[in-house]
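Researcher: We are triaging several targets before committing to wet-lab work. For this one, the compound of interest is flavin-adenine dinucleotide. I'm pasting the protein sequence and the ligand SMILES. What I need is the predicted three-dimensional arrangement of the protein with the ligand bound, expressed as structure tokens, so it can go straight into our comparison scripts without reformatting.
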Amino acid sequence: MASLAKDFFIGLSNNDFLNQSAKKFGARFGAERFVAGTVFDAIIPTIRQLNQKQISCTMDHLGEFVTDRSEAEHAKEKIMDMLHQIHEENLDCHVSIKLTQLGLDIEESFCIQNVEQILEVADACDVFVNIDMEKYTHYDSTLKILKLLRKNYPNVGTVIQTYLYDAEKDLSDLEDVRLRIVKGAYKEDSSVAYGSKDEIDKNFLKIAKKRLLGSAFTSIATHDHHIINELKKFIAEHQISTDNFEFQMLYGFRIDMQHQLVKEGYRFCTYIPFGEDWFGYFMRRLAERPQNLNLLVKDAFYTEDNKLKKQPVVIGTVVLTLLFCLGKRKKKG
Ligand SMILES: Cc1cc2nc3c(=O)[nH]c(=O)nc-3n(C[C@H](O)[C@H](O)[C@H](O)COP(=O)(O)OP(=O)(O)OC[C@H]3O[C@@H](n4cnc5c(N)ncnc54)[C@H](O)[C@@H]3O)c2cc1C
């Protein structure tokens, strides 16, 4: 059942028609719980509030799988504007980018040019840039591009997905690179990735521990309290400096735990997605944890004193039925 729900939401996340339609609506149907807004200006107060609570942020201007040059250039401009604003507003904040948003599926050299221009501005603004890791089909090219970029721009890092069999092998090439460790969010074939939670968790712990014993900065990005608790013990046993790592979680997830980690003296960073292209991101979050639907249903259908709201029931039922039908008809190959 969990696997069916996962396949269903991942299918929706890849659906072109739904992604395009969703842009016209703005973040709706509960997505606003996990997507901070559509424009950067409007999110600055949220970043300030988090910074005041000793939480740093990484901003993701949502968008991926771009196939149009002008769209990729537009995304680049938006990211560069954001870098200037982070600098001018003196925010404790860095930026996460996706290569497919910047033209990787159009032409590799075009994508590299776009990222170089971003890194030029990031350098001038003294802001770190992280390249998010996407589907396995882009894995080798992402690592290759990172290596090339780092010759001129040391202030760029990436992500290791511990569901990949290759993760540990590739770690040794990235010893001096700032890395984020995650489990991995995409549906991958068993020829390249572990499928069971046990195997993925085991690999996560192995890789995170290895990194924590090294000298480059590591972001431990998970909402999994079992993993966090085991790593906290490891960090204490090995007297690892809290300057060498941070915990990261997504905006809107386990907020109590985010604050608790800060209270315990750990560095913490919240990953904040924003923008019009929210649908694929939102569907992947539902795929990871279908229980997130419970939260959304509760928010959408019930008032604070637990009374049923009438109008959203009708709208919600229509929307979910539509999503289901369109997801089946327009599923991408
Ligand atoms: C900051 C950040 C950046 C990321 N960047 C990328 C990226 O670049 N590329 C990529 O592929 N993926 C990325 N991801 C997504 C990641 O790969 C996982 O898909 C996602 O984090 C879900 O896995 P998890 O480690 O949080 O734990 P899960 O395996 O989803 O959850 C493990 C357990 O933790 C508990 N739990 C989890 N969430 C909750 C909750 N909300 N409330 C209560 N209990 C909960 C439950 O007990 C659950 O069984 C990122 C994730 C984060 C946090």
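Researcher: Any quick observations?
Model: The mean pLDDT is 87.
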